[in-house]
Amino acid sequence: MSRRATIALIGSALAMLAYCALNLRLGTNLQHFLPDRGRSKLAEISSRLADSAFTRTMVLSIGSTTLDNSIAAARELAEHMRADPEVAWVRSGVDPTQLEQLYAIYFPRRLLFLSDDPEREIPALLTDDALRERARALKAELASPLGDLLAKTAPADPLASFRRIVERLRASESSLALVDGQFAIPDGNYAILLLGTRASAFDSGAQMRLLANLDAAFAAIAARRGGDLRLETAGANRFAVAAERNIKRDVYAIGACSFLGVATLFLLFIGGWRAFWIVSVPPLAGILVATTCGLVLLGRLDGLTMAFGASLMGIAIDYSNHVLIHNRLSPSPETPVATVKRIRASLTLGALTTIASFGGLAVTAFPAFREMSLFAAIGVGAGLLASLKILPALIPFAPALPARSARTAAWLGRRFADLERAPRALLLAPIALLPICAIALHKLEWIDDMSELTDLPQALVDEGRRVRERVSSMDSSRFAIGVAPDAASAVALDDQIAAQIERAIDAGELDGSRSLHSLLWSEALQRRNWELLVADATLPGRLDAAFVAEGFRSGAFAPFAAALAAPAPAPLTLADLEASPLADLLGPYVFSLGDEVAVISYLRGLRAPEALRDRLEALDGVQLLDQGRFVDDIYREFRVTSLEQIGVGGILVVLMLALYYRRWRPVIAAFLPSLIVAALLGAILALAGVRANLIHAMSLIMVMGMGVDYGIFLVDSTAHRQTLGATMLSLLMSCLTTAFVFGTLAISSQPALRAIGVTTGLGILLCYLLAPVTLAAMRVGRPTERGDA
Amino acid sequence: MRFNAVWSTSLAAALLALTVHAEPSPEGAALSLTALMNGMATASGVIANFHERKQIALLAKPLESSGVLYFVPPDRLARFTLEPEASALIIDGEKLRFQQGDRTQFDLSQSPMARVFIDNFIVLFNGDLAKLQQLYRTDFSADRESWSLRLEPRGSELSRAVEEIALRGDHRGIREMVMRSRDGDRTSTALDVIATDYAFTREQLQALFVEGTRPASLEKQ
User: Which of B10, B69, B182, B188 to mutate to test the interface with A (most CBs of A within 10 A)?
Assistant: First the structure.
């Protein structure tokens, strides 16, 4: 490589590094893993809910031997946590200023919010008998110690419209009791705090800091106050942190095993760390180029996508290993450039088939899959180019291979050549297994419940359930959702949803709900209230007469009559509330979805989901979202797509092999082992009773890509029999490296990591063990050559 | 109209509707405000029936209600309205709550206005004359048979709603309290003291101030 080219390469690498360092922002966007075609709206809602005020809220339950001690400890804890920078808010009771804010916003519009079923309810409220009944009730209320409060508002609001608004809001709030202004559950001596986090529940760094502070603060309070204080919590962040902590613990242990294994392997067969760094240049170049291109083309890269894509770079290290071993074990000394020239076709075909095997992902509806496909294609391509163009210049700096490498290569070459002597048996034995595999595969159970991919401590799960049952009965995974083109239509749709839910409650299909409807009605509904009130010109006179008959002064309700005679108040709009101090209350119920607006109703005690679904789906743009089922559906689709992609990728690989070899024998020889590996792997999982999931399917794609590479390298070795030993050593290195890096994940306690480990580790070992099938396929039906070994 | 201000009148009426006894004055001498405050400071458990008459601009006739109150010095009061509808107002130190029958409970402890009223209530009965005069302009007069104390709130929160509180009493303690609101409403509460040195049992205090109920042992009083 010329000096100028070297400088240009180093300059480009540094420029790319700088660009990535400045622009790389890793994050995981759940929406990215949901389809963006067909069901995107529901997917977007689901992903918004997954990172909404709902998941950012923690419930803290403080118990003690006495309620007073629980409440005092809760107050101290609330005070401490309010100062935590990760905490957005802490609610320990009802905000005393909220009633004033409600009054300022709603009292002037009280007559617009009299009834959400005005045509039925308002005429009934305005009969002479109903007015007298109302007068009697008001008189009794005035006699109470809080009566003076009503005495000030009653002249303008004899129908108690404002009190109805307050009662609707109160009914939609938590069922927690208030003791001394503190949320509490007297039965059990629990004080309750609600805590909102600034960061997403899945931002484990921020959540770890917050939880550590919470635990330390509570421990200090409990030590100081005594009284057997205990803290129980519920929150998505607790689960996210526990999952990450478990995964990290596993990854550290597994990483140590992998490192020891890979280090031993390189010391044994490559001769040291200098050689390791040299063969690492192509995969590192692949990651750098893929990251840069990903950032330029997509603007950002998803953390999970990049992690998966980077793991594919393990394939690229096989190319450089292959070049190094073939160069150093060449039958006659040759330059690295000559070695590359000799095996260039195999490497190129291997890389292209790997890219093709991921090609099917590029046409799926999942943005994350498309991103992975792009990342893998660019990364594997760049890794190949680096192996062909840069590696030859570096190989002279690598030490000579240890003598055992040559001996091992020669031994492997002889053993595999021995196996070739019975090609029919070698070929037919695994093929004969295929029908058995087919039967076993039939029994393979697929599971799409994503909750089974993480193994959370049962104690934490039970604690969360206990706390939630204690404080809230709203279902955390099922919602009624309406989507409309603008805010006004969304509020109108919310009216209709509320009406349907009310009917469902009357029919016993559910116990209750919480929604925007307790805060806001559509402008049309507000106007209907007003119009029904002012339509009855006799109302002020009849009301006066009814109240006078019950002991009120004539004319006492002149402010009410004046309000009816005045122009209608401006209806309350979503924008009004958003600009008011009550804006925080809207958060859980309404959010924008691009150009549209979604409204959410939370449900309680849903007993007949299908009946409610029918009611809701009768409305345009409204659905009952069962988030758990929805996510499982998405992942089922994900998994089916992955399996289909194995088929599509397989066809592309076969076409590519056919184009290159232009003969059926090498095509079958290169492809057959990976096909058998896929079947065997599935059968083994089925027979072992493993419930397969999306992760198994994704890992299988990677294994098959590597299996085809093995096949190509072996097919091409048959043209140069004296290099078979070098090829087998190179594949052994690849196989063992993969087994150490990925296979060790099989010992993880986390189901997701275990799935990767089992599939990749077992799969890659099978790929190596079935390598003779390629040789047999190339040999069967041909006369035996002498001196092959 | 400020919400807290309208709330205040009801609370003030309740908070101040209580009874104390004044220390006996020297034979034939008129009672002084200092002596009255000292008497308040040394009062023990008080039980009194009350009869309240509310004159509200809305109503052609005054509203009348009656019940019983229990005062445990220095800062605990339970006021049970028995007629025409049952309700209870409980002050226990810094805590204040209202309950209507078995249905509704309002915890007002966190309300800034409730804090104002509790502070004003405590100062009346802890014997701190200086503090009383800091919170109210006082006008005390007495003769050998009776005394009267006129209180005009100084604090802006209270004075926005309450124009004047007038207390009248004799050697046995307060006999009547009249509160006039800024808007002309007037509440007068007549007190008929049953006991001024009642020793409440632990169970009675638990029932009154924790459960918000009248124990059977007190219903006979």
Answer: B10
Tell me: the pLDDT tens digits for A768-787? 888 888 888 887 666 554 43
Of the candidates A237, A250, A405, which has an alpha carbon nearest to the alpha carbon of residue A329? A405
B56 vs A contacts (CB less than 8 Å): 142, 147-148, 151
ipTM above 0.85, yes or no: no
- Exposure pattern of A79-100 as b/e (b: 16+ CB <10 Å)? ebbeebebbeebebbbebeebe
Q: Which of A449, A481, A359 is nearest to A48 (CA)?
A: A481
Give yes or no for a cis peptide into B74 (omega within 30° of 0): yes
Cα distance between residue A517 and residue A586, in whole Å? 10
Is the link from the previous residue into A540 a cis peptide, with omega within 30 of 0? no
Q: Looking at residue B96, what is its pLDDT?
A: 75
User: Exposed, middle or buried by CB within 10 Å (0-12, 13-18, 19+), for A353?
Assistant: buried
Residue A117: phi and psi, rounded to 5, are: -135, 65
Give the percent of chain A with pLDDT over 90: 20
Among A220-224, A363-367, A521-525, the range scoring the smallest mean pLDDT is: A363-367
Question: Using the 8-state DSSP alphabet, how is residue B1 labeled?
Answer: -
> Residue A590: what residue type?
V
For testing the chain A interface, which of B3, B66, B83 should be mutated: the one with the most A CBs within 10 Å?
A: B3
Please give the structure tokens belonging to residue B127: 């014997």
User: Contact A228/A65 with Cβ under 8 angstroms?
Assistant: yes
Length of chain B: 221
Please give the Cα distance from A656 to A663 (Å, whole number): 12
> What gap in Å lies between CA A275 and CA A405, rounded to an integer?
14
Which string of DSSP letters, residue by residue, matches B149-206? EEEEE-SHHHHHHEEEEEEEEETTEEEEEEEEETTS-EEEEEEEEEEEEE---HHHHI
How far is A390 from A9, CA to CA, in rounded Å? 9
pLDDT category at B109 given cuts 50, 70, 90 is low
Q: Using CA atoms, how far apart are residues A172 and A150, in angstroms rounded to an integer?
A: 23
Contact of A750 with A250, CB cutoff 8 Å: yes
Q: Of A304, A293, A305, which Cα lies nearest the Cα of A382?
A: A293
CB-CB contact of A87 with A509 (8 Å): no
Looking at the partner chain, which of B10, B64, B110 has a beta carbon nearest the beta carbon of A147? B10
Inspect the interface and report whether the beta carbons of B58 and A94 lie closer than 8 Å. Answer: no
| Rg value, chain B, Cα | 17
| Facing residue for A152 by CB, picked from B6, B59, B89 | B6
The span from the CA of A755 to the CA of A222, in Å, is 42
Q: What is the DSSP letter of A570?
A: P
